[in-house]
Amino acid sequence: xxxxxxxxxxxxxxxxxxxxxxxxxxxxxxxxxxxxxxxxxxxxxxxxxxxxxxxxxxxxxxxxxxxxxxxxxxxxxxxxxxxxxxxxxxxxxxxxxxxxxxxxxxxxxxxxxxxxxxxxxxxxxxxxxxxxxxxxxxxxxxxxxxxxxxxxxxxxxxxxxxxxxxxxxxxxxxxxxxxxxxxxxxxxxxxxxxxxxxxxxxxxxxxxxxxxxxxxxxxxxxxxxxxxxxxxxxxxxxxxx
Length: 241
Hints:
This protein is mainly α.
């Protein structure tokens, strides 16, 4: 009996406390319901955004892979992909890869088309500096510093090049250090000084017969074309009847 009476008293006390709590929160019931609804809407919106962002990342990387799947990356497609997905992780890698392509073009044209090579180097420099300034991925930052050092190297700004090489960390650090040491050598500096003013060999105009204003020492009739039959005038005779 005492146990039952104690249980009844505890139940009544719990009910009374619950009633008091409900009375206290009753004025806030509408606000709490609105807050709960807002939380549900927020979770639903976040779920939709997460799916959309994942789909965008997939499309961005597919675009990047399409641009680099050949033996030579498609630089125009890389640039278009970076501009189409500006907020994606792919953009920074696309910018680095595109800048590497510009440096390759500059090295190809450096002697025979110095102006075009210089323009390509400036485009690459802008891309590298953008990645170095904005990226939170240290691997890409180090690739950008390595690329920037190569640009200064090609422009014969060797001290700037060495400074950038010595900033490189991670996987490229050892190679960058070796390159910086090579640029400090006198022979290397002399080679780059020569390269900075090197001119491509010029083709000389042909001399002798055939120059403009001078008649050749043969006539058109002297040229025997394949399958041609010499005419009477060129052979001095006549054909038979």
